[in-house]
Amino acid sequence: MTRRVLVTGGGKGLGAAIVRALAAAGFDVDFTYRASGREAEDLVAELADAVPGRRVTALALDLADATAVEAFCAAHEDSGYYGLVHNAGQSYDSLVATMARDKAEAAMQVNFWSLTALVKALVRGMIRQRAGRIVAIGSVTSFQANPGNAAYAASKGALTSYLRTLALETGKRGVTVNTVAPGFIDTDMMARYADHRAGLEKQIPVGRFARPDEIAAVVNFLMSDAATYVTGAAIPVDGGLMAQISAHR
């Protein structure tokens, strides 16, 4: 029987790379999108040709809208998903002294609270099946501080801690729960840092940003049968960024 996976924020960038990887691995994939409707349609059409026989479905959902998230969860609670990949994320850069609470709460809603709602709706079905995979995209900023990233890092840190607890609660029930913590990824989200890219790449031991498919490959592994014994992990995929101290010659 084909297993079905839900991916949030799958219309473009890293999310689209994850959708492609999972469909190629034999999963049916539902993915949510917010503003990237055209890209979502193109991705569905692309995969209909690339992986015929796999069902790939785009679902409009704004994770910043808590009411919409709750309605989505209620509608999909008994959908029999084998896996959940929470990729959607919202950034917010601000120094602590000037942080706006509403913007910080918006990032927390997308990055953390929407995940908790989706998990609550889907994990009981996985437990009943005694088989399931939950993977979320975290960030190295939740482990290593960076000026201006307090709100974003806090939301990703909350995500990681929450999933570690969930891993303990589901470990004997066939459900694995893990976080993938990327560093810098070559996507549209990093476009605003274009003027600083050369300097950032000099600080990464491998000397470049990650390709989206490199992060997607790790997610694909965690969703696979080969990862049965991997749970409660937070895996940096950062080109060695966390392996070094920040002050260096």
Question: Gyration radius, to the nearest Å?
Answer: 18 Å
Domain module count: 1
Described by the principal axes of the CA atoms, the overall outline is: globular
CATH topology annotation: Rossmann fold
Strand order of the largest sheet: 3-2-1-4-5-6-7
The profile of the biggest β sheet is: 7 strands, parallel
Class by alpha and beta content: alpha/beta
Unreliable parts: none
Averaging pLDDT over every residue, what do you get?
93
CATH superfamily: NAD(P)-binding Rossmann-like Domain
CATH architecture label: 3-Layer(aba) Sandwich
Helix content: 40-55%
**End-to-end distance:** 55 Å
Q: How would you spell out the order of helices and strands?
A: EHEHEHEHEHEHHE
Count of alpha and pi helical runs: 7
- Hey, roughly how much beta strand do the residues contain? 15-25%
Output the CATH class name. Alpha Beta
Structure summary, number of beta strands: 7
